[in-house]
């Protein structure tokens, strides 16, 4: 049996593609394409987030630092340290740090392509709603 201990390192992280993110997001590919599962550690400065996107496979997001805001379709979630969410394949979503706190999460999924194209109108509206943080949080807690 060949086992590996994986350690996320912000020092080894690379800038995430600016076309797909809002803010100076960084990531560290812990598995480096050497396994059947992809584990990325993703660091978000306060207020930074992904653009809307989908994956061809299910994705698990596990919060390792701070709080992660997640929009899945029209659903809103606020995840804290140790919490995770499973996002089904093909579902438009976005995720990132709250405006007041830096954050980090692990993205765990099988290697696959992501679609960073134009999401449906309802999902674009949800992404824009994040810009009014107070209203966004109010909707999460209702």
Could you walk me through the main structural features you see in this protein, from its secondary elements to its overall organization?
This protein is 13% helix and 39% strand. A hairpin with an 8-residue loop joins strand 3 (26-29) and strand 4. It starts with 13 loop residues before the first strand and ends with a helix. With 142 residues, it is mainly beta. The protein has two helices and 13 strands; from the N terminus they run βββββββββββββαα. The longest helix has 9 residues, at 121-129. The strands form four sheets. A six-stranded antiparallel sheet has the order 1-3-4-12-7-10, with no helix packed on it. A three-stranded antiparallel sheet has the order 9-8-11, covered by helices on one side. The model has no long low-confidence stretch (mean pLDDT 86).
Concise account of the structure shown:
With 142 residues, this protein is mainly β.
Question: How many beta-strand elements?
Answer: 13
Helix content: 10-25%
Q: What structural category do the secondary elements indicate?
A: mainly beta
- Our count of helices gives 2
Mean pLDDT: 86
- Measured distance between first and last alpha carbons: 48 Å
Secondary-structure element order, N to C: EEEEEEEEEEEEEHH
Q: What percentage of amino acids are in beta strands?
A: 35-45%
Strand order in the largest sheet: 1-3-4-12-7-10
């Amino acid at each position: 049996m060949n086992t590996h201990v994986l350690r996320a390192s912000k020092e080894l992280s690379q800038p995430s593609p600016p076309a797909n993110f809002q803010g100076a997001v960084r990531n560290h590919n812990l598995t480096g394409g050497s396994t059947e599962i992809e584990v990325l550690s993703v660091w978000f400065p306060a207020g930074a987030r992904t653009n809307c996107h989908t994956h061809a496979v299910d994705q698990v997001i596990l919060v390792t630092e701070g709080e992660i805001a997640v929009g899945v379709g029209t659903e809103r979630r606020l995840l804290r340290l140790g919490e995770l969410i499973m996002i089904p394949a093909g579902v438009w979503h976005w995720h990132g740090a709250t405006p007041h706190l830096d954050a980090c999460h692990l993205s765990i999924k099988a290697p696959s392509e992501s679609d960073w194209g134009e999401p449906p109108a309802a999902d674009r509206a949800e992404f824009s709603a994040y810009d009014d943080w107070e209203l966004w949080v109010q909707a999460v807690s209702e």
